Fold these 2 entries.
Entry 1:
Amino acid sequence: MCAPKNAPTVPGNRALSEWKLVASQLACLAVALTWLTAPSFSAAQAKGEVARAILPDAPVDARVESTAGFSPAAIQSAVPSVRDFVIEPYHKPKIIDREFIILNSLTFISNVADSEISLHGLNLGLRESNPILGSHPSREAYYALGVSNCLAALYLSYHFKRVSPGRGWWKAFPVALTTAHTFGAVYSAANIYGR
Amino acid sequence: MEIGPILRLRLASTICFSVLAAVAQGQQPATTSQDSGLTQKQIQRRIFEGEQQMISSLIGTAPRLETYLQSLSPQTKAERPIDDAYFLSKVDFSRGYEESGQGRRGYQTFFFGGPGPNRTVRVNNGRRWKLYPDGFLDMLFVDLEDFDGETYNLSYIKAEPFGGALCLTYFVTPKDVSARGKFRGRIWVESSTFKIIRINGTFKPTPVGFWRRTVGGDIPIYFSFDSVRQEVAPGTWMPWYSYLDEDRTWKQLNHNGETDFHYRGHIFIWGYRNTAERSGKPYLPSHLDDEKLLANPDIVERGLNVIVNKIAVSNNLNLPDIECRVLLTTPVEIFHSGHTVIVSRGLLNLLPDDSVLPLLLAREISEMTLLGRANPDVRGPADVNAEEWSSAVALATKAGYSDGIFSTCWLFAQLAERSKQVPNLVQSRFGASLLLSSAPPLAGKILAQGRSGTTLTLRGKYTIDAWDAKLQIRPEGYNDTQTAGASQLQQFPRFTSHDVATAPVD
């Protein structure tokens, strides 16, 4: 990402900041209320809430107490005779699937685009604003940093997709890097063509 | 007691539960049964005493405990095992916590599943998670050590039929809400003897500290379970079978589980009756009999003997006294020792249809008859196996059991295909491996042909008599909710709030 020399800093909008502060406080309050009122994560509750109708002849206190954590579905579905175990074929989920390839390809593409546009900007007299690279980095420096970042994101996304297949955290790394590089490329292009 | 996952109780639910429990305790009506003339307090005392008597009666017995657990692909209705685990042990209830000196009670002496890699199971990210077999024993009881009125509250819910008996159901909660490892759930109590016959619930987990919650590490987990007891004598109900099926997301593990998981499994306990009292003559695999791993011969064995004798007579084989016995364990195996053919309960439950068993028995007979004639060193084991199978098919066909060839090949093909998913089910424990040594030559080709509408299923058809270690057969279409009629339920005096006015003082 390259920026014009001596680019002025723009102070933030004070009214907007105050609005954001209020909004963030409300959000925090909502999150706290949700957290406090959320049911405990018991296995029985996860299967469904308790209906009072299931206990029509119970004393009132027992009914109230029994609604604290156990579901009638779990009770009614419990078959006392021995259960059958169906054994269906299991295929290990693919880690390197289409989504994985697309996201990581976008990371590399955005990296190349950012580097090349920035190099073009440097040739036109702009300077690099990334302090790690210095004000006038070479092409090798751009690609050394960019490719190593991409490889790190590739490894981390692979690792998290393998270890935590139930989560989408693996997407965070390629998405963050792609976003950063895309922003850098657009910012550089705006500076180059908006002069 | 830590075997399975559990969970963080949030602040609000803890407070609400504590308040409700306190209110419930304060408002517990002293209701009475008009038939028994007992107040609720007296009934509860009898429940506690009955359970304590039952547990103390276990001292001196040496039952066998079998746990078979599968790790399934989580968050899907499809039943796709990823891996499995197997424990078989002898339980000595007289061994206490102090005696074991291992930080756990140490009730069990393991035949299979001792310390080491056997006590892990692979989950869907390829990693192996630890299992604690002591916890599976706990899943047959409400509380093996502290089930009394000082530790637990019982709250009556309602009367309902279960397993042919009329039961009173109670909600069980620990008096000390902060106590760890205490049971929380429901029990079904037989209405005349007040003995527990079913348990459904879980144990309160050990809280996860800030470091493990934030950074990660082992998270102790408990499973919800459904445990059923068997009436071994009038009014005496002993632990028999527990089932667990736990499908949880990573969020339910303090938001810090590395992945979702799904475990299911069963636990059987049998052989309360002492070996010395068991009837029957000594058998060749006497060590299996001594270890209460062979079923006491009964109707199933008689059926197998009929098949074996029919094969022998039809083929004019000079093999007197061929006898079949059933191994009570879940792993799939069939082998012979002398003239005794041993079939595992797991194999009987896994058979796709009745036509397979005669062919498998015929193969064992052919192995007996060909023994000594075939020389594996000269001809190779594959040739010997092929000869035994061709001989088995000939023996079975002559005895009128010719229609099981395709099903048998299909079974072997399925076992071969699933062998990586359920290695502990396929792996023989006492005999030679069914897959390696004796797969029919055509099994590999059968798989390609497919068999529409059939899935490999470990059924619950053959179960175990907990007292006498006999094989039991589940009746077809068995449904416990239908066994006690509505009229029977209406005759039973229910405990309702209006009983309070007429209840005698306890």
Note: Chain B has two domains: 11-272+482-500, 276-462.
Entry 2:
Amino acid sequence: MTPLLSALLYLVLAPLAGCLLAGLDRVATARMQRRKGPPLLQPYYDIRKLMGKQAAEVNRFQGYYLAGFLCFTAGAGALFFGGGDLLLVIFALTLGAVMLVLAAFSAHTPFAHLGAHRELLQMLAYEPMLILTALGLFLATHSFGVAEIADTAKAPVLVLPGIFVGYLFILTIKLRKSPFDLSSAHHAHQELVRGLTVEISGGHLALVELAHWYENVLLLGILYLFLAPFGWALALAGVALCYLIEIVVDNSSARLRWETALRSSWLVALILGGANILLVPVLLRGW
Amino acid sequence: MGNAVKSPWVLHYDASSCNGCDIEVLACLTPVYDAERLGIINTGNPKHADVLLITGGVNTQNKTVVENLYAQMLEPKVVVAIGACALSGGIFADCYNIRGGIDTVIPVDIYVPGCAARPQAIVTGILQALAVLDAKAKGTHVAVDKTAREKVCR
Amino acid sequence: MKGVAQWRRFRRSYDLDLTGYGVNLQSLGFVIAFPVLPALLALWFRRGPALDMVVWTGALVFGGAALAVAVQFWASGSSLLLLPFDAPLLDQALLGLETLVLAFLFWRARSMKSKAGWVPSLIVAQAAAVLYLDFAGGLPKSAAPLALDHLGVLLLVVAGLVGGLVALYAISYMKEEQAHHPGLPDRRGLFFFLIFLFLSAMAGIALSNSLAWLFFFWEITTLCSYLLIRSRGDEASIRNSDLALALNVLGGAFFAAGLLWLALGPGPRTGDMQALLASGRAALPAAVLLGLAGLVKSAQLPFHKWLLGAMVAPTPVSALLHASTMVKAGVFILLRLSPVYQGTLAGGLLAGVGAATFLAASLLAVAERDAKRVLAYSTIANLGLIVACAGVGGRDALWAGMLLLAFHAVAKGLLFLAVGSAEHRLGSRDIEDMQGLLQRKRALGSLMVVGILGMFLAPFGMLTAKWKVLEAMAQSAPLIAIVVAFGSAPTLFFWAKWLGALVAMPAAPKPRLERIPRVELGVLGALAALTLAATVAVPSLSHLMVEPFLDRLFPAALPMDLAPLSAMLGIALVMLGLPLLLVTAPWGSPSPAYLAGANAGHGFINALHLPQEARLHNYYLASVLRPEELARVALWAGAALAVAALAAGAWS
């Protein structure tokens, strides 16, 4: 499987996987609330409807920023699944996220502006842990390349327990789940009405959804890296379990304030992530 | 491409309702009636919504608000007027500030009578609205069913 | 007769072309000495078209000469070029000038408002040290006072290109300054005299192999910085120039102490930089002292206050001295001494100072509204990254440090100049007043946007360098990598926030702004083009300008793996291709803002049923960051680390 083929497969299959993941999220949430919930393919119906509507824009640059968001997010994922450098993947993802924020900033309306700022605060919260994850994986496997990390003999999760938990913590923020869905909550919830995406609609909103699917597959892929040496079946099961845990956390917690999100994320990154990184040589030898 | 029948996103606005009908609308989203089965999501943003669920009558202050919200919704869109007040002003129809039902300012497609309207009726109303939405998306003209409104006003 | 023989020997040496590519003493001497001519002419003409002509010619010739030397050196394929010559008259002339400069600084220090007695005393001590070292033969003279290697050429090219462009910008900027403040005396002649004198000193620093000469040029930059900060003449300028003088005198004292250690201490008794590097660990105390001088010059914790205060100076000063070149001299020294620091505790502690500075300055920048202060904090932070690279050492770290030096100089120069132009049009430096600048002034706005993107986003050079920093630190110093990871996040926050203000497109139109002079736009465009071109050409630039230097220092290391950068190039291409979407993609239907339906014109109807406009401001996180406390904690942390580094160096 050449890197180019993997990247292309990702670009084609990730929307399908992301759609099913989003649908699974909504069905699982509904069942936890003792109701039936939408069909599994509901996210696909949503996107199909959105693409059929003409976008309403407050300025003509929004589409440009959103196209950038989609391109760079999908590009980051393609780079990841093509076996590229993990740090570069993170930076490409950051680039995409900044484009989304710029789309909201360019609108210059109260809800969009606040949503953009909340999104920046979320990025401020999770960025250290994300970089520490890459650092940790490097120290555990002696490579920044995703292909080499996936091929490692010893499971990184055994050497990086703190970083694994820290990554799960910020995954809550990146997947836009309670208690940290501050900038634009999931479909069923509202925060700042629609926050970041309040002035984005129709086909443009479909782009944002699609980009979120690409991003979710990438984020779960990083989670997979921690468990890869256990074999693909066990690793996928582990990833599914973690995703389910995220859904449980989402449904059982209320939204917290951005100060809490920022402080707790940095504390987790410092204590769990930082300590783990300094202890990696010990843990590597111990096993 | 696709239309909104399988993914009707709802904007719920309280024009001057006593909140009775609003509570019934929110009850539709609870596990007992579970409107999300139909793919319904309560988005508060007119730019994201296909269906406008509106309760209460129109008064002088929110006339422009209702018009603005309706205008900001993207085509195709339907309006469901819920409760007696939305139909004709209800028991507040003679008040100095109430101009009348919702259809005095924006075109209404479905009327759901009741005071307060029951969640079952609201969900039925939304389902009928989806048929109208489908017809609008396909371009077929649909006549508005005014029988419910007529009955209340008599 | 002895003088004639000396002169004859000197004359024979300066024609010595060791490379066959035209790099000889003549060309190097020209680059260093030439700017003095436009400096004196500027002082003579003082204003008018003659002054403009002098500055144009001076900038173009200096930039061209610097580039010529660089191209010749790169083409020659050599990695280190020592130019031996013996010019005792020149040495004595420099010594005399240095004493004059110190005397002038002493006089200014005596008349400082704050009456800090230690500053004049330190100047006297430095003068005594200089006299002992150079006059009384305390430190042996370097056999090859000038030397050329890739690191020096990098600094020279940066000084030449950015310096030349800033000087051109300053022609137009200072004219506007004069127009805006007609009451102030027209000191443009003195201004450009100092600018060109400074450029000469920068070339000297880049090319000096003799430590005594390096110290001389170092002190010249202190002098220029002091006088330029003071140029506006108001109370804030005087106060801040005194602070800059005080701290830079302290830096000079560190430098002199390092030279004294070399002269009197147990280590190698040499006045030659390359010889110092060759002695390695034996010269560590001197290297740490010189490193501390570099920390002061680069405004690292705990010596950073002077750079923030220096923002009261006119924008070209901030761009040239306090972002692109003078502060680069400090990290230049640290990068040069990096092989001595590598693997030592002192080096690690110096790297700690750099990393702590990066984290603290990035956090403090989040709380700032004044655009120049944000840029100042960002400069301090990025210099901290370079210091961290130098302290840790190793091939990858030095690669990243050198690239950071070059990329930061260009991008930060661009940003400072753009802010200067914006300030003249808007009448304010507040970022809130720059909302919608992209819409109001498309050229200036887009150039400022390019500058900001160039500072923190993929695929631009700064991000590439930061990527390499993280990778290098992950291998050699994970603790530093952790600090850098935490510092990257606030960096993202304050740049994206500023970018958001620029790209905003408010519905309510704002008053039109005056035209920007073409010279200013031209310079900004040139710097932006340099940023973009350098980004795309990182692998080629690396092969040409950086890797030969590293190959010489680390002959056993594996070649650099720059393959991942092709991904960056892909991103760059996508970024360039996206604007095509603007032209071709169908755009949606225009729609007013969402304001809960209460839209009224460009604003909304508020709770009192009155029309109101929404005013949108950025977050400054003062409640979470507590900037004053944070600054104090950072200062003490930096001081502790610096003292620890000094102790580690002394006890080695």
Note: Chain C is about 75% helix and 5% strand.
